[in-house]
Write a sequence for this structure.
């Protein structure tokens, strides 16, 4: 088979659901909800557009499981069935052409900006960006179980709304990731210390979700290959956790890497040799495959369809995750399947001003601006001025 044919093959998940092809639109935070965290018509329009892309799975951006723990000011919030009708509209719009919509469920932990009334984490380890984040308060035992229950409740609402699956955000330095790392988890109880204890939070979230949604509903997780920081979550620990999660029955494990402090998922702070090759975490995914047969999704750095297909053909991974290129070309997957394109690219986000271009959030801000264009029914603009995007972002966040 050629590359488009390989990427079009379907794949059955352990839960029994079959995904129509191997291309996944990985999560990018929309940060465009209406007041109170209601899914906006703009988000629904964005996913209606992506629903025509041909991607097997569309993973939403951050959906926060608590109104008291936001990563961004305009996150969608799903604590209960308050926004069930809007969530149904979102699912219907995204899935009417065959794609599966999955909800990425998250809690920011210490990565909750200062507009949150209180910040919690496994331990009281503060992010060094003092002007943006307060020192977190260590979670009490009962609060940990409340958050676990909250993740499960959000997953149940997603199922009731007609979504095809959910993903636990366990990467990029958010709360689940904070429990996994000895840099942010200094606890001496059953939630800290050994890797088994630090993985307990993620495993209990999975078990709670599974008890609520049943055996035939897909549950996935996004996990770091490493945090790329001294004294933090390592590759060896990640491989152990991946095996633990797979043994529990996890349907799809997405591999990424990095945190707010070391944004490896953006590619900018990786070694130049790693940036220049395809798939930032390709070496790690081979190691992950060696410890588990669970379905694996790799996101970050894929550029050519030939490399994507070869990785699947070699059984190194089962799904190819593409994120930022979907903000530039919303019909990407179908164009790959039709053989119209053999290479995918994200947008050019360089302003030419060094201190700005070193800021990891510029990637996010530029691609989010194009996502918001699509939410208004406009086509993305690959030539959108990065400097104008930066100035608008700075103005909107001046407080």
């Amino acid at each position: 088979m050629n590359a488009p044919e390989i990427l079009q093959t379907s794949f059955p998940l352990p839960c029994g659901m079959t995904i129509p092809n191997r291309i996944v639109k990985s999560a990018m935070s929309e940060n465009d909800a209406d007041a109170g965290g209601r899914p906006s018509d703009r988000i629904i329009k964005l996913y209606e557009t992506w629903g025509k892309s041909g991607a097997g799975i569309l993973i939403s951006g951050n959906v926060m499981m608590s109104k008291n723990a936001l990563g961004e000011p305009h996150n969608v919030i799903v604590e209960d069935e308050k926004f069930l009708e809007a969530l149904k509209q979102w699912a219907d719009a995204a899935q009417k052409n065959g794609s599966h919509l999955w909800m990425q469920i998250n809690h920011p932990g210490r990565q909750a900006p200062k507009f949150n009334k209180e910040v919690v984490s496994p331990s009281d380890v503060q992010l060094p960006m003092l002007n943006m984040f307060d020192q977190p308060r260590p979670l009490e035992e009962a609060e940990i179980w409340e958050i676990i229950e909250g993740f499960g409740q959000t997953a149940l609402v997603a199922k009731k709304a007609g979504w095809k699956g959910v993903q636990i955000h366990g990467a990029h330095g958010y709360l689940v990731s904070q429990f996994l790392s000895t840099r942010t988890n200094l606890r001496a109880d059953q939630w800290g210390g050994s890797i088994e204890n630090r993985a307990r939070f993620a495993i209990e979230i999975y078990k709670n979700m599974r008890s609520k949604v049943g055996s035939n509903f897909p549950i996935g997780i996004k996990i770091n290959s490493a945090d790329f920081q001294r004294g933090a979550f390592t590759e060896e620990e990640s491989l152990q956790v991946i095996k633990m999660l797979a043994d529990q029955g996890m349907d799809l494990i997405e591999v990424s890497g990095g945190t707010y402090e070391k944004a490896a998922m953006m590619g900018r702070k990786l070694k130049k040799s790693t940036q220049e090759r395809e798939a930032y975490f390709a070496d790690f995914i081979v190691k992950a495959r060696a410890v588990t047969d669970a379905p694996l999704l790799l996101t970050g750095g894929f550029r050519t369809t030939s490399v994507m297909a070869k990785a699947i053909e070699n059984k190194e991974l089962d799904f190819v995750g593409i994120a930022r290129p979907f903000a530039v070309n919303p019909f990407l997957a179908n164009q790959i399947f039709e053989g119209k394109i053999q290479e995918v690219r994200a947008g050019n986000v360089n302003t030419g001003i060094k201190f700005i271009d070193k800021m990891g959030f510029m990637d996010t801000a530029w691609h989010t601006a194009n996502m918001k264009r699509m939410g208004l029914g406009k086509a993305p603009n690959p030539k959108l001025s990065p400097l104008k995007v930066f100035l608008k972002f700075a103005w909107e966040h001046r407080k």
Observations:
- The chain has two domains: 3-346, 350-399.
- The domain at 3-346 is CATH 3.20.20.70 (TIM Barrel).
- DSSP finds 16 helices and 13 strands in the chain.
